[in-house]
């Protein structure tokens, strides 16, 4: 796969159809050759015939937005432990907001996960993780309205955990209250009510 991707650049191939359809040409052409190779490498999806590379397909139209596509590339990069490139692409995805709180929410979720996983490697990872948890929580009502249901929203649990570990118990309780108000769960048996009880015990 990588040899095939590399050959695309050696042959001077034009901007891939999907990149053009999504109006991402300027972003794509500003990337280095190595970065463009990574974009191709991480532009994969599973179809009826198995894994396909989205940038090798002939495309004249798509229902996918630029933000959704870039989120997918960033997510795949993160799954391959290429966290620096994942951060770069996910940050770019946020610049291509498509008016959908759902797209933005899932982009935030991927970015939050990247920062939390790198908390022991990057000096500012926790600070950025907190920042994007807060941003995601700010759009939670809008996301739920679009989504039509109240799913698990990881940013609430993640932020509560971070605050609890930092001994910022009041802040952690406030996050739990926000989660309870919107109706989401943290995936544990006791939920956010149980989390609040555990935090209160630490405060005693």
TrEMBL record:
Q: What is this protein called?
A: Tetratricopeptide repeat protein
Gene3D superfamilies referenced in this protein's UniProt entry, alphabetically = Tetratricopeptide repeat domain
TPR repeat spans: 153-186
Q: Which InterPro entries match?
A: TPR-like_helical_dom_sf (IPR011990), TPR_rpt (IPR019734)
SMART domains the UniProt entry points to? TPR
The species this protein belongs to is Halosolutus amylolyticus
Quick check: keyword RNA-binding in the entry? Answer: no
Q: Does the keyword Magnesium apply?
A: no
- Keywords, comma-separated and alphabetical: TPR repeat
Please indicate which superkingdom the organism of origin belongs to.
Archaea
Known SUPFAM superfamilies for this protein? TPR-like
